[in-house]
Every structure is written in C-alpha cells, then in structure tokens.
Amino acid sequence: MTPNHQQLIGLLARADPGFAAGDFATRFRSASAPEGETGSFRYFPGGFWEVSNDGAGRFLMAPWGIRVELESGLVEEGPGRGTPPRTPPWSLVLPRYSTFLGREDDDWQLDVSRLLVEEPGVLTAALTNLEDPQYKGTLTVSTETYTITSVDLGHVLQTLVIVRTEPNDDDLDVLEDIKTNVKDGGS
Predict the structure, then answer these.
(1) Contacts of 64 (CB under 8 A, 6+ apart)
(2) Which of 18, 35, 55 minimizes the C-alpha distance to 162?
(3) N or C: which end of the chain has fewer CB within 10 A?
(4) Closest C-alpha to 112, from 123, 99, 127, 95
C-alpha cells in the first residue's frame, strides 16, 4: 500500500538501512559548470562512514572524530560532528539529514498537491522549494531501504546507488580501519 505524504516523511525521518555500500553523484546541469561530485560510500550502523570522493580523497567518520585522507597525502583529523553533513551521500543514505522534508531549516518540502507515484521498488514525490514555490523538483525513494535514490531539482541531480546491504570481508576491514585510525578529536 502506498503511504501518504506524512507517512513517507515519517518513514524517511526514521530510515536507517543498517549497513549500506554504494555510489553517489551530484551533477550540475549548468553549461558553464556541469561537473559535480562523485564517489563511493560505506555506512555502518552506529555512525561509522567511509566516503571516497573521486579526485578529492577519503573521509572516515566515527562518532568521536573525523579523519580526512587527501589524495595529496595530507591527513587531517578533527572532532566528531554529532550529525553527518546535509549533503550526499550522507543526506541520501539517512534522509533525516536531508533538506527535503519540509522542516523549519529545510530548503524543500514534499508537494502534497501532487500524488506520490509508486513503481516497483520506488516511490517518487514532487518537491517544492520553501523559499520560492515556483521552483519544483522530484525525490525518488527506495521502498526497500527508504534511502533517497535521486533528487532532481532542475539545476542539479543527486543520485545514490546502493550496491549491497550486507557487509563483506572487505567492508568489515574498512570498519576496523575506521575504529582504529579515527582518533578522538576532542582530546
């Protein structure tokens, strides 16, 4: 049964796929600057992340700290954030950190005047910009994981592809790497 808009917001606000690994992209449609950000991620329950941005480096996040390993070889460390960034892949894997749920500090909200569209495995909702309602977009959600698989805002397209939801041995090695190498940024 297709949820209504409020039910979908509730599902997205509570969604947590457990473990997830995959790829993400942000593409700008401007002819002058179409490049965006692409990469891969691994999310582990408890707030552990590995995010590799193509051409930038690798970000390791644990509840107690962050480690950034830049492609130049430079390593930076810092304190834990408390919450992940409100940008992909974090905001797509855990939609409660997105800016699309119509909360006071969000940029977008689901457009309840337009029906949710259900297709096998996904729901698509229309979006309206909170500052200027003439701007519209769409949000597509996996009904298996309640992650956001795409956001099309006209000028930008954000996508998420989950490759697996069960960790393999390599994933478990990465989790151990995060726990071992991310220092307590508060000390």
Answers:
(1) 79, 80, 182, 183, 184, 185, 186
(2) 18
(3) N
(4) 127
Q: Which two tokens stand for residue 153?
A: 């805002």
**Residue 124, CA atoms < 13 Å, CB-side half-sphere:** 9
CB atoms within 10 A of CB 70: 13
Instruction: Copy the structure tokens of residue 172.
Output: 């478990």
Cβ atoms < 10 Å from Cβ of 151? 24
- In this structure, the chain runs to a length of 187
User: What is the maximal distance between C-alpha atoms in the chain?
Assistant: 50
Beta bridge partners of 7: none
Per-residue pLDDT of the chain (187 residues; tens, 9 = 90+): 789 999 999 999 999 999 999 999 999 887 666 578 999 999 999 999 999 999 899 999 999 999 999 989 999 999 988 889 999 999 999 999 999 999 999 999 999 999 999 999 999 999 999 999 999 999 999 999 999 999 999 999 999 999 999 999 999 999 999 999 999 865 5
Closest CA to 81 of 53, 51, 106: 51
Task: Copy the structure tokens of residue 46.
Answer: 């408890």
Predicted structure pTM score: 0.93
As a whole number of angstroms, the distance between CA 123 and CA 51 comes to 26
Specify the amino acid at residue 139: L
